[in-house]
Design brief:
The complex is a heterodimer of chains A (about 240) and B (about 300). With about 240 residues, chain A is of the alpha/beta class. Helix content of chain A is about 35%, strand content about 25%. The relative contact order of chain A is 0.19. The radius of gyration of chain B is 20 Å and the shape is globular. Classes of the chains: A alpha/beta (about 240), B mainly beta (about 300).
Chain lengths: ~240, ~300
Amino acid sequence: MGTLELKHITLRLDGKRILNDLSIDFWEGHIHALIGPNGAGKSTTANAIMGLPGYTDIEGDVLLDGQSIKHLPVDERAQRGITLAWQEPARFEGLLVRRFITAGAKDKSPAKAAAALEQVGLDPEKYLDRAVDKTLSGGERKRIELASILTMQPKVVLMDEPDSGIDVDALDRIFEATRALKANGATVIQITHSLAVLKQAEHAFLMCCGKLIDKGPVSKIAEYFEKKCIPCDHVNEPDEGVAA
Amino acid sequence: MSKKDELLKELLASIDVTDVHGFGEDVARLEVHHNQVIGTHLVPGLEVDVNERPEGIDAKIRVAPGVTIAKPVHVCFGMLPEMGVQEIVLDISVEENANASILAHCTFPNAREVLHKMDAQITVKAGATYSYFERHVHGPYGGVEVVPKAKVTVEEGARFKTEFELIKGRCGKIEFDYETTCLARSTLEMVARISGRENDTICIRESAYLCGEEARAVLKSNIALRDDARAEVYNTIRADAPHARGHVDCKEIVQGNALAKAVPVVEVNHPTAHVTHEAAIGSVDSKQLQTLMSRGLSEDEAVDLIIEGLLS
């Protein structure tokens, strides 16, 4: 299973309310998009689900398959099947791609790492023995990070701005890998303010000002986002009556 | 099996070599236990003259001019007893346009009070290439004092690369001191990768003197410290010649109560020379840690993997 539920999540950072009574049910084995303008609280939501330091002091609850994970540290949440692809993946001096890719996998064989690299469109012969360091471009590190997630076989994947800093070809590979995760039964949550990413999803949730503004089919949310959010000149201060 | 063969077998087993014959006839070897040569095999172009002394050996190693030794020469220095002194005095000369590399293991698997000293005079003559990779294998007790000292001359157009690695077992106490003089168009690369824990102490002093036109040098130290370990790194590059280039790079990760100090010194005495330095000391990067923990690794496992990368 991989059913994730947010129940009335409120999170304050430096005294400011960043998430405001946020409740969302993510469906098992589906691709979701969490869309909204910059500062809407999307990445904060992902960080709170992952339980990253600084994002754990929340009101409300986070349930995975009906069980609260609110008090679990990051590694225990990951061991239960939740993982995060970062907007800008970390660099690791000297750490080989093949070691990084299989860090969280049960099968740590080079063959497993190679297969995952192929899934994200990178040639294993060229990449397995390179380091995950500054010699890789941002797009390469993003694909390698996704390969590490593929080997982990997670239940829930949080993808923070999957299109950030990569070219169109690489983005297609990331979309393919996202579909592969879904095919393996994973629940995927894409954090984005991009219509291209949004259109890959099956369900969409629109956030603004730490609140859930609307939810539903991608076409409906895309239309609203395009017409209302993109031209909006009072970002994160939604009009009265807009909130769902 | 003779006592010498038994010693050889045990010494090599400590570095995970189970069959001395597995090296092949085309691989030169030299194995020294305490002050005794217990194994040797030479190939054409390589001359080794060893004199055994009460607490070690004097060895003259020469690679003949123009000779390329195709496969790395395997050298193993070590001591199996818990206590003792091993002093290695090396005089290495890689003659003009020769090409050789040495893969050396220094193994002290049972050491509780062992002093391992090395005094080396290394000359890489004009146009020659020489690389020396030294891996230390220590036991769990930290009872080893390692004092390698070397004076190196890299002649015109020559290349010298040395790597020192101590990441298996406790390092004990290390005092590393290498001085290198680089002549015109020569290249030097010195890398040290060391892991310290408990009350291990590490002191690295490396210096490169770029006195020849277009000489190049990189001094790189990557050190990981835990518990109460201490490390001091003093890396110096002095460039006096036109178009000389140098870079000093020191990275140290500290955990627990460990302390680290890095003192890069760059001195440039010619307007067209250029030397840079970079030093970073700190705890494990939070983003790296959280990334690996979000794959399910515990904090300790994540730190181990990050350090593995740094020291790789």
